[in-house]
Amino acid sequence: MIHVENITKSFDETEVLRGISAIFKKGKTNLIIGQSGSGKTVFLKSLLGLFDTDTGSIKFEKKVLNDMTDKERAILRQEMGMVFQGSALFDSMSVEENIMFPMQMFTKEIDSVIKDKANIAIKRVNLINANHKLTDEISGGMKKRVAIARAIIMNPKYLFCDEPNSGLDPKTSILIDNLIQEITNEYNITTVINTHDMNSVMEIGENIIFIQNGQKEWEGSNQEIFKTDNKAVTDFVYSSNLFKKVRKLYL
Amino acid sequence: MLRNTFGKFTKWRILKQLILKDIDTLIIGSIGIVSFISFFVGGVVAIQTALNLENPLLPKNLIGFATRQSVILEFAPTFISVIMAGKVGSYITSSLGTMRVTEQIDALEVMGINTYNYLIFPKIISLSLYPLIICVSMFLGIFGGYIACVYGGFSSSADFIEGIQMDFIPFHVGYAFIKTLFFSFILATIPSYHGYFMTGGALEVGKASTVSFVWTSVIIILVNYLITQLLLT
Prior knowledge:
Radius of gyration of chain A: 18 Å
Distance between the termini of chain B: 34 Å
Oligomer: heterodimer
Radius of gyration of chain B: 21 Å
Strand content of chain B: under 5%
Shape of chain B: elongated
Distance between the termini of chain A: 32 Å
Largest sheet of chain A: 6 strands, mixed
Low-confidence stretches of chain A: none
Helix content of chain B: over 70%
Shape of chain A: globular
Number of strands of chain B: 0
Order of helices and strands of chain A: EEEHEEHEHHHEHEHEEHHH
Strand content of chain A: 15-25%
């Protein structure tokens, strides 16, 4: 579980996060949604400790991220997995090497054992015949799968995903969403996903936080988002006519 | 940056591979261009010297002497380092910059890796072999001068060889290698700084490479001046 209490973050004169508090529950897919420029990415990077917040605190179970030394942060980060928007795969390595990398860095296992574990992760994310390919030889959807496999190989407690569906077709997006949700339940991890993909919201949004202008505007589940009267949320989520009709039908 | 580069070391097994890879890219990959430039510039230095020795009273062995002095004191250590700032420096800046833009550095940080040590330390270590390149450059520069001079009919082989042995001060070679060691550190760190801390997109990667080349060259020239003042005057 991750507790976020009243965090703020400014860059020069611009206040990007304005007192956000939230709880991200274990074993659930927690979604952060909001318009582009609303502060989602800064919020996610603050959770990862890539940005230091100005005020407030971020607690991983009982460990307070803000009070940690660099060494303690490095240890905590070994419990985290991250899927970046552009996958952030190491382009000098093959698919298999990318997935093996965290284990090679942080465990004393021999390469054959690491390879076996990597193959389990590869199988888990349904990657076929891609082990020895370089990352620029595979499709966007496959890259996301590799990124997910790399993120889960160390059995993380926390999984963070930044726009995991960006650049993917709707069908692949849903497959990736479902994969993330299955992994969350299977490994019982705290998953935080940064997205503005409405299909993801409807499909896997067990706990959704809507951010607007750096503030938490609304919080609820994918069931509750249909019923909410919050204008900012409805304007954002039901911006297309199709979604408006779907909502009408649902209600 | 430097404090972090030498702090919290990456596993030796991984670091060793990175160092070997960087030696291959930065050192071995540069030998070809350095050899080519050194050979021909050495030749040009010899021809230019020969053409300026119009006075028949001046001995022909001065061509070998001038070529040796130019190549050992300035051309090989300084001129080649400025060329390397373009070749190796741009490579380091653009590769680190691309890693920054594509969030690969963020990915390493999220994993809890000391990215400074992982990315920059192997480059510093591999470039500590840079004096070997300068050795090759010195040899080929003088050899190029010899070929141009002898086969161009400017002096005899004996005169040229006598010239390169004349008034030889071994410390000059030491001075050149001391300079080279400083330059190798500059070649590894300044481009790394510009690549690691760059912000923006693909266009900024190009800009960072250019800025990195300019600054590396400027610092090399300034350090060259300072070391020459300190060691030779």
